[in-house]
Amino acid sequence: MGNMMNRMTVGVAALAFLLTGCAGAQYAMQNYSGITPISWASPTTRKAYRIFDKPAENRLMITLSIGGAAVQGAGAGFTWGLADTRTPEVVYQDAAIEWLATTGRKCTATNASLILEPQYEIRYACEAVVAAPAT
């Protein structure tokens, strides 16, 4: 009986994990499909990212470049998932704010949340742009 319960517990946990992944992918598709990604490399960390910006909604999705995501996934696979090779959330948040500054916006992050590893949504607030006085 105990072995059967262990199998059921593992099965339920696996199903929950898969559904979480599906929900994250669905969220990304619903909210960011049609947005052309911007490829950008942080001068600070030298990591390459893809950024899907929605300035009208003060939010963006940031993910490692395709190559960076592959390396991260390979690292997890190489260690059989025993080593946490994920990039910390704060790194994505800092990179997003750094990128926003390159667009001339002075912003702060108001929220960062994992969509689906390694994709994070960063919500931000920017200072209002003041128009130069007419001369």
Automatic annotation (TrEMBL):
<feature type="signal peptide">
    <location>
        <begin position="1"/>
        <end position="25"/>
    </location>
</feature>
<keyword id="KW-0732">Signal</keyword>
<protein>
    <recommendedName>
        <fullName>Surface antigen domain-containing protein</fullName>
    </recommendedName>
</protein>
